[in-house]
């Protein structure tokens, strides 16, 4: 069985996933909580992580059964075939949601670590982390005697030395 991606009507994702579950079709509609503000109040509501998408896991021959439920537009296609999502990717989304959206599988960078710049003009250059912020970091390119201010995701860990 494969995971397929359904394109559904906007703001009906959760309802459609529930209806598919009642039919016995395994679904995954990842949700997060957002605080919405109106003129008179604030309220925390559950919203889909991926707008207009619901993941379904079923056999290829059962793909058309989902169209019994109203609000489903079509399957998402990639290169002329229905897009298939790996089990590992679904597991990563589930793990990410379980960790409240914090990054997973990455070691936090600390000053003194050696990294390789992954993108930009200084790609593939070795640098040493000098300062780590929330989304940015300062690295020193020792051979060029330069300090760069980079996005945290634009470097790869080289070693812990």
Automatic annotation (TrEMBL):
Signal peptide: none annotated. Keywords: Transcription. It comes from the Bacteria. It holds the Pfam family NusG. Residues 1-94 form the NusG-like N-terminal domain. The keyword 4Fe-4S does not apply. GO terms for biological process: DNA-templated transcription elongation. This is UpxY family transcription antiterminator. It comes from Pricia antarctica. The lineage of its organism: Bacteria, Pseudomonadati, Bacteroidota, Flavobacteriia, Flavobacteriales.
């Amino acid at each position: 069985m494969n995971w397929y991606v359904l394109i559904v009507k906007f703001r009906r994702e959760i309802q459609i996933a529930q209806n598919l579950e009642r039919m016995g079709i395994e679904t995954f509609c990842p949700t997060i909580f957002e605080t919405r503000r109106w003129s008179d109040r604030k309220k925390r509501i559950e919203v889909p992580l991926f707008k207009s998408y619901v993941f379904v896991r079923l056999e290829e021959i059962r793909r058309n059964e989902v169209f019994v439920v109203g609000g489903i537009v079509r399957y998402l296609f990639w290169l002329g075939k229905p897009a298939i999502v790996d089990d590992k990717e679904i597991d990563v989304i589930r793990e990410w949601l379980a960790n409240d959206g914090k990054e997973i599988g990455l070691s936090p960078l600390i000053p003194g670590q050696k990294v390789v710049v992954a993108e930009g003009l200084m790609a593939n250059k070795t640098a040493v982390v000098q300062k780590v912020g929330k989304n940015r970091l300062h690295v020193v390119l020792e051979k060029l005697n330069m300090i760069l201010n980079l996005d945290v995701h634009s470097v790869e860990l080289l070693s812990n030395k």
